[in-house]
Design brief:
8 strands; single chain; alpha/beta; eight-stranded mixed β-sheet; 17% strand; Rossmann fold
């Protein structure tokens, strides 16, 4: 299995398939690179790299799980693998990691795809496009009381009512959840601090690479209005809303999502 080692000696795992222009995938909170199983068909045209962030998947647990820790790991991946003209795809918490890493990897990036993301997860007096801060505190308490049940409930909550049939749901569970590994418990708990505290709104205007934002219209974890907010504040961004979808359209509408990604990436190099 391929790994990189950070300057502090942390072993970080990634899966690689295909050849061509590099496309790096960042998963969301408490997940792993396996969430992108249905994106593997893109390897007929690109070099795909599915990154397990620290404390997740096959990557080692760490002493720290701040947004800067995660962003530094992404920068290390780009540097160690000498990636150039890459596309960075982030989902949910992975969007915030991508935004934080952007200044460090900017010269190596051709564009970004930000899925179900936000520049600020919680609401504020001047920002209504998030979850009440008390919801994040509640999730933290639930994790401490019953870790496995809370993880299961969170996963189920990613999908909108009627988004898929039982057969498709079982396929997602089988290929993404059952074959994966639960995150380090401290990684899951500490990463909630990012959702509770990080505000990246002032970074959006600095993202001067082409950006495709993809968001499920019925996302209840991170409202679609959060991506609309980002799209208005990034100089080269456009937003694609996916009707009938919740927080993970790349899982439930993989063919459509992959087509969006192909069109975006190919358009970068025409």
């Amino acid at each position: 299995m391929p790994f990189i080692e950070t300057s502090s000696g942390l072993a970080l795992h990634y899966q690689e398939t295909g050849a061509g222009r590099p496309v790096v995938f960042l998963h969301g909170w408490a997940m792993s690179g396996r969430v992108w199983r249905f994106q593997h068909p893109l390897d007929d045209a690109y070099r795909l790299l599915f990154f397990d962030q620290r404390g997740h998947g096959q990557s080692a647990a760490a002493d720290g799980y701040t947004i800067d820790d995660y962003a530094g790991d992404v920068a290390a991946l780009f540097s160690r693998l000498a990636l150039e003209d890459a596309v960075l795809i982030g989902w949910s918490l992975g969007v915030q990691v991508a935004l934080q890493a952007f200044p460090s990897v900017r010269e190596r990036l051709a564009g970004l795809v930000l899925v179900g993301g936000t520049a600020r997860f919680t609401t504020a007096d001047d920002y209504p496009h998030g979850k009440p801060p008390v919801d994040v505190k509640g999730l933290s308490l639930k994790l401490r009381r019953d870790y496995q049940k809370t993880m299961g409930d969170f996963f189920k909550g990613m999908f909108a009512e009627g988004e898929m049939d039982q057969a498709q749901y079982q396929r997602i569970v089988h290929e993404i959840v059952m074959g994966g590994r639960s995150p380090d418990t401290e990684a899951a708990k500490e990463s909630l601090n990012i959702l509770a505290t990080v505000d990246q709104r002032d970074r959006l205007a600095q993202v001067d690479r082409p950006v495709l934002l993809v968001h499920g219209e019925q996302d209840t974890i991170c409202p679609a209005a959060a991506s609309a907010y980002m799209a208005k504040r990034m100089p080269k961004a456009r937003l694609e809303l996916v009707p009938g979808c919740g927080h993970a359209p790349f899982m439930t509408r993989p063919e459509g999502f992959n087509a969006l990604v192909r069109s975006f990436i190919d358009g970068l190099f025409r």
